[in-house]
Structures are given as C-alpha cells and as structure tokens.
Amino acid sequence: MTESGDTNPCFGCGAANPRGMQLAFDRDEQRQRIVGRFRIAADFQGGGGFLHGGIIATVLDEAMSKVSRFSGVRTVTAELTVEYLKPIRVDQEILVEGFSARREGRQLYHEGEIRDAEGVLLARGRGRFVIVDPDKYRQRAAEKSAVP
C-alpha cells in the first residue's frame, strides 16, 4: 500500500521515511513499464562494496509492485523470487524496470530487471501480487494495532 505525497512511510519508496531508500519511479505508458534509474549509496551495501541482496530484492519489489498501477488496483506482495546474476556495486548506475507478465483474477504476476548502464542484466525478479481493497486493508491494520 502506498500513500501519496510526503506522508508515505514506506522504506523503499516513501518520501516521509528519512531512513528509507526514497526510490522514485516513472511510468512508461507506451511500453507499460515502471522505470527507475539509481545510484544506491554505500549505506545499503552488504560487503566488499556491493549492494546487499535484500536491498536488491527491495528495489525489484518496489518496481514490480508499482506495475499494478497500470491496472488501477492496489496490491500487496504475496511472493517474491530474485535471481542474483552479477554483483551490483555501490554507487553503480542501474536501470530498474518492472512489467506485467499475466493476471489470474486477483493475482497479478509481474517481473522486474536490473541492468547496468551498458544494458547487462544484473538481477531479475518475479512476483505475485494480490489485489486488496484499500479501505478494508487499512481497517484491518487499524484493528490489529488496537488489540493489546
């Protein structure tokens, strides 16, 4: 679930999260893809000057989840698979793209890719996203947080 403007607390894309990644993506309407260009800082490294695998997974999850916007629905991630093909250096320019693979009822299947500036595929992901009703989702979250 995302919130608009500066109130979004999401670790991956939230402008209101000073400790988060604050990833911003563009919509390529013509190709029906979500696109982002980034240089991710050393704060998010694993070891040896390379990005942490969990950060790579987060970047792919963010790109793929935003593909649901082309369908005009809200989704949550149900499954995520990542293939780490080559190490990604900190501060290396990367291009991230997310796109739709198929839809089965409330289940949306999206894919994502991370490439370097030369177009070499560094990592790819596949995800299953489930359509949710934003009002019911917020109501259930509020009920769970109210339980002592």
How would you sum up this structure, described in words?
With 148 residues, the chain is α+β, with helices and mostly antiparallel strands. It has one domain (8-146): Hotdog Thioesterase (Thiol Ester Dehydrase, Chain A, Roll), CATH 3.10.129. Helices cover 18% and strands 37% of the residues. The protein contains 2 helices and 6 strands. The protein has a 6-stranded antiparallel β-sheet. A hairpin with a 4-residue loop joins β5 (107-116) and β6 (121-132). The relative contact order is 0.18.
List keywords for this structure.
alpha+beta; 148 residues; Thiol Ester Dehydrase, Chain A; 6-stranded antiparallel beta sheet; 18% helix; globular
* Quaternary assembly: single chain
Helix content percent band: 10-25%
Q: What is the CATH domain class?
A: Alpha Beta
**How many E strands?**
6
Strand order of the largest sheet: 1-2-4-5-6-3
Number of domains: 1
Under CATH, the topology is which?
Thiol Ester Dehydrase, Chain A
What is the annotated CATH architecture?
Roll
Order of helices and strands: EEHEEEEH
Q: Largest sheet, described in full? A: 6 strands, antiparallel
Cα Rg: 16 Å
Low-confidence parts: none
Tell me the number of helical segments per DSSP (H or I, 4 or more residues long).
2
Strand content: 35-45%
For CATH, the homologous superfamily is named as: Hotdog Thioesterase
Mean pLDDT: 90
